[in-house]
Design goal:
Elements: H1 2-18, E1 29-33, E2 36-40, H2 42-48, H3 50-56, E3 68-70, H4 76-88, H5 112-124, H6 127-143, H7 147-160, H8 166-178, H9 180-185, H10 189-193, H11 197-208
Parallel strand pairs: 1-3
Antiparallel strand pairs: 1-2
Helix pairs in contact: 2-3, 4-5, 5-6, 8-11
Length: 211
């Protein structure tokens, strides 16, 4: 009984914290991505990543003097999911209807949403979020297979990760192996992968273990 009560208390505590997500009440920092802004709280973000500590301390980013940090070159939805994770420990896969400045309001596709969260987490040094994004991607690959999305996923993953990211790269190699015939028969496969030397080499090495 005591254990259940303690668990319920902790869940209630976390639920209250999640209510602060994108809530202007007591917000002391604004994150700007494109034309979208998020009202956030330094204390919560700094616990998750040192990026915001460095950005907002004295001598940090120029724009932080106004308590505004601009993040460029990343998907608006990916930043939204990163911030949601900071407040709740998880993120939604459904799109945010309030984001108006990204590809006609469309979200990143079935698999890319997780690849882009992984990229943001890597940039900010949020290892637990990288793990979560990888697992969510694995579940989608397993239960929501889409070859067209998979090819795009491979291309972007190898463009945004390095050789040390063995978990997510290795997972894509495994799914490529499991669906090798379909992959080879896909129109445009050769053209798409002509410049993906790292992926091709890793796939060949993986397949050689089963020869």
């Amino acid at each position: 009984m005591a254990t259940t009560a303690m668990r319920d208390w902790k869940l209630g505590f976390l639920a209250k914290q999640s209510e602060l997500f994108n809530n202007p009440s007591h917000s002391d920092l604004t994150i700007k991505v494109g034309t979208t802004t998020f009202k956030v709280h330094k204390a919560i973000l700094c616990v998750r990543t040192s990026f915001f500590t460095d950005a907002t301390k004295e001598g940090g980013f120029q724009e932080s003097k106004d308590n505004i940090v601009t993040i460029e070159d990343y998907s608006t939805h990916a930043i939204w999911r990163l911030l949601m994770y900071c407040y709740t420990g998880d993120y939604q896969e459904t799109r945010n209807l309030d984001i108006k400045d990204q590809d006609k309001n469309l979200d990143d596709d079935l698999y890319l949403k997780h690849i882009r969260v992984h990229a943001v987490a890597d940039m900010l040094g949020v290892g637990c979020l990288k793990t979560l994004a990888t697992e969510k991607l694995r579940q989608n690959l397993r239960y929501k297979w889409d070859m067209k999305c998979f090819i795009g996923c491979i291309i972007e993953t190898y463009a945004t990760t390095n050789e040390s990211d063995r978990t997510i790269r290795g997972m894509l190699i495994e799914f490529a192996h499991m669906n090798l015939r379909e992959l080879a028969d896909t129109e445009g496969f050769v053209e798409d992968f002509k410049h993906l030397g790292e992926f091709t080499a890793e796939l060949v090495f993986h397949l050689s273990r089963y020869a």
